[in-house]
Design a protein that fits this description.
Protein name: Swi5-domain-containing protein
Shape: flat
Keywords: DNA damage, DNA repair
Radius of gyration: 22 Å
Strand content: under 5%
Organism: Sporisorium scitamineum
Pfam family, one: Swi5
Order of helices and strands: HHHHHH
Structural class: mainly alpha
Family: Belongs to the SWI5/SAE3 family.
Amino acid sequence: MSLVNRLLPSDTTHHAGDSSAVLKTPFKPLSGLEGRKTPQQGQTTSSSTAADPTTAARRELRTRTLTELQQEVADMELILNERLKTHNAARQKQQLPDQQPEHIVAEYIALLTEYNKVKDSAQVVFDKIADIQQLPAKDIHAQYGVDEAD
């Protein structure tokens, strides 16, 4: 099975009328290409190196040739182009306009910005309630069933 076929999504269904359906699909990082040979396979690493994925990634990049890296970039571009074609074909079946990567990213950033504004506003409200009730903010979060990380 080719690299492209292994990484293309098998399920391309989207919800009708949902222009941001692509944002609801799970993220599949391209850097974790299955079956890709890495120079470190079969080698043991120390616990400090194994605990630091950034160091391991840098070491792997240093041991790979420019040609290998260019080939990987070309493979990723091919995969992304195929995914975009599949995505837009599914949108056309639902009579939705095609999307370009720049549009998808811009929409995602706009949604993320809106989410952050709402979250910040809610935090201001929780802080005011905490001040009025003279309680720690974490108690107010618990009172309203909100995780502190939310």
